[in-house]
Design goal:
The protein is built from five helices and two strands; from the N terminus they run ααβαβαα. It is mainly alpha-helical. The chain has one domain. The radius of gyration is 21 Å and the shape is flat. The protein starts with 20 loop residues before the first helix and ends in an 8-residue tail after the last helix.
Length: 179
């Protein structure tokens, strides 16, 4: 029988009770890093942001998930739509992640990562991007930045209104997500 009062010690599976504090912290951080790796890969390869260049003057409103994934990234990576795009996105993401990630030192909180993968739709089919295509991508980048800033203002207004909803806990910390 345990002599300590119930509730004074966290209840852990029997095999975890013998872990030292450092081992538990290592396990927790490893789990966080694995989750971060999974989420960044998912957003870079599986569900990459795919706005259309035809909507450059009025991009559709970003959903909350897309807003948070766009923030805390330093560099946009535009991948053109090609048959091998998914393979290219995987290889490029793996390379960048391995160069960027440093165990215990990389800031993974709030889904920080160095780049955001964007696959613009409806670009002209060219073997090499023309100057007008590059100008279009620069304009799209500006439109995406404007959308993120507009979403930030929308969250500030929503929180100031005091209306509680299902997403209030998600957007409460939006100030920690920067562009």
């Amino acid at each position: 029988m345990d002599s300590e009062p119930r509730g004074s010690r966290p209840v852990l599976p029997k095999d975890m009770r013998d872990y030292s504090r450092d081992e538990l912290l290592w396990s927790w951080r490893t789990s966080l890093e694995g989750g971060h790796r999974h989420i960044t890969h998912l957003h870079a390869v599986q569900i990459a942001y795919r706005p259309s260049v035809q909507d450059i003057n009025s991009l559709p409103e970003m959903d909350t998930r897309e807003f948070f994934d766009t923030c805390n990234k330093s560099v946009p990576v535009y991948l053109l739509t090609i048959p091998q795009r998914r393979l290219l996105a995987t290889v490029l993401h793996n390379y960048i992640y391995r160069r960027w990630f440093r165990p215990y030192r990389s800031e993974i909180e709030h889904q920080r990562f160095i780049c955001k993968t964007i696959t613009p739709q409806d670009l002209p089919d060219e073997p090499t991007p023309s100057p007008s295509t590059i100008e279009t991508l620069v304009a799209m980048n500006g439109a995406i930045c404007a959308e993120v800033e507009e979403r930030r203002r929308s969250y500030v207004q929503h929180l100031a209104s005091g209306v509680a909803d299902l997403h209030a806990h998600i957007i409460k910390d939006h100030r920690l997500h920067i562009l």
